[in-house]
Amino acid sequence: MQPEFEFFSLECDMEDFHPVGNGPHGNRATVIFKGGRFEGPKLKGTILPGGGDWEIVADDSTAVSAILACWIALTRQFLDTRYNLKTDDGAIIYLRTTGVRKGPKDILDKLGEDESITADQYSMRLSLQFECGTDKYAWLNKTVGFAVSGRNGTMVIYDAYALV
Question: Which InterPro entries would you find in this protein's record (predicted)?
Answer without folding.
Answer: UPF0311 (IPR020915)
